[in-house]
Amino acid sequence: MRSAGNTTPSGKPFCCDICVAVPVALKEEWAYLKANTKLWHQLRGDECPPSDPIDKEKMQSETPPDYMRLVTCLGPAFCERDYRTLSCRQFPFTPYITADDRFIGITYNWDFQKVAGSSAISTRSARPTARSFF
Known about the structure:
Structural class: alpha+beta
Strand order of the largest sheet: 1-3-2
Oligomer: single chain
C-alpha cells in the first residue's frame, strides 16, 4: 500500500477511513461491484469504534436511496484499485452537477479540511495523471 500522506488515528489514509468519510456508490456502480469483487459491503454502522461512531440513520436520510448506497470496503490493506468507488477515486473532491443534470465542474469538499487539514489535498501527487487519479 502506498502512503497517502497523513493518516487518521487508526493509521489509515484519510480517504480510506470510513470513520472520516463513508463512500457512496451509485445504484449501477453497486451492482457492478457486488458482481465483481468481495471488497465492498453495504454500511452496517458498526464499522467504527464506540469512541468514533457512525450515525448511519442520519447518513441514510441524507443519501438519495433511489440511486445511491452507503458502502464500506475491507480497508486500504485490501484495496483493489480497479474496484474503487467513484467517491473513493475523487476524494476529497465532489462533482458539481446542476439541477438539470449537467456536470459543470468539480469542487473541493471543505468538510474534510476540519479533520484532515491540508493532508486531504496533499495526498495527491503534485502532478497527478489520469492513471494515478483513476
